[in-house]
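Exercise: predict the fold of this chain.
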Amino acid sequence: MNALQTGQFYGQTNQKLQLGHLTLTDTEYTHPWVDWHYHENAYFTFILQRNVVEGNRKQTYTCTPGSLLFHHWQEAHYNQKPEGYTRGFHVEINADWFQAYEVQALQGSIDLQHPQAKRLMYNLVREAKRHECYTPLAIDALLVSLFSELTQAFDHPYLRQPSWVKQLRDLLHDAPEEPWTLNQLAGQLALHPVYLCREMPRYFNCHFGEYLRMIRLQKALPLLISQGQSLTQIALACGFADQSHFIRSFRAQYALTPFAYRKLFVG
């Protein structure tokens, strides 16, 4: 089985940034099939464009733009890429980084569905693209926050959550653009609206409005990178009332305009 060293991925690396114990790479995947292999460092994979299938000894994931995976070091896996341009961003983390910040790495290979974690990763990628004098500080801080967010999330494993939590998450993620109402969601889950409203923050760490805004914006991000639609089309497809509302929400969440974000990623 192949063992990949720091900064090594199958494909064409278009950007590589070494920041202390971190290695960040923006890579175009060029191999239709990559056999079983592992990496010497723990790392995140963040899919920016198109799709890729990844399998390990327990599960197989179909990764689309916005998918976020974590691999502990030496976790064996394989990859399969469909035809067309596919691009991913990687954050490799040397064991010394975990020791320096007293951060506990997650175990195994995990498909991370948490919107708060994805928001932090998008911000991390944005900082890497800007590459300014304070980039190392910003990226270290974002990565510490990301692990803190995930540690908190995994303190409440899905197996210990009521079944309606996963049902609600699936409803919202499958159709974030829908004009959901509290009564609609409560009816779908067979819960009282007051109970649902009260319990939502316990399992999602935020209220309905904030959560929906996050996942609507995350649906928009890969659409901005693909450049196939106008801002108005993206706004409507993601459930925003109009382009102005979309731009205001985007700036509040990511501290830059959708146009600036698109330019940062695609030039």
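Check your answer against the key: The CA atoms of residues 13 and 27 lie 4 Å apart.
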